Structure formats: C-alpha cells, structure tokens
Amino acid sequence: MESKDIELTNEIGQCLYKIAPADAKIILMIAALSPEGDVSQFEFYSNNGVNESEFSIGDSDTMKLHYLATAHQKFMVANNQPAWTRCEFTVNVDANKFSMELGYEEDAFRDGSLR
pTM to 2 decimals? Predict the structure, then answer.
C-alpha cells in the first residue's frame, strides 16, 4: 500500500494529464496555497516539444486540484512538516513521470503570473 502523499500526488498527476492539451509532452502546474489551505491560486502550462503555452481549466477541475493540494498540505502538516504554500508540479508525459517541488514562501500569492 502506498503512502497517502504518494496516493495524492498520483491523483494530481492523473488529473493534470486528463485536462492538459492533447499534444502536451510536459505539463506544469504552479499552485499557491494559503497555510490554512482555504485559498488557492493555480497556473497551468503545457509544452508540446516546440512551444510552451498557458492553458485554462474548468471550475470543477480547479476545485478537484484545490482539494488534492489541500489534502497533501494537511498530510504533510500531520506528519510534522511545515505547511507548504507553493508547489510546482511537473508531468513528463513521454517518460510517464512527475516531480513535485514544494516551497514555503510567506506570500506565495502574486499579482500577475505565479512564475
């Protein structure tokens, strides 16, 4: 049985794969999350091997990713880790792998781009 954080990251990766443009080879989600997990901000990018572009998703997918990100943050806190406030989640479609880089910025929310 996988640990809960691996389970959650697999779900995030699967969700991103489903909502990304069909020609995406690399998918990037940048998320800002309040320490309490009640507010989030997301940006999504895809790269087809030639060009990178930002893409939008629907409200239900945004809510699902908010739920998954919050659940991951709460899991980390429950395991004596600080509450992360920034996440860069990358899916490499061709390699069938993902990476998740967490940040602990005091103010992860930004005007304009999260990049």
Answer: 0.94
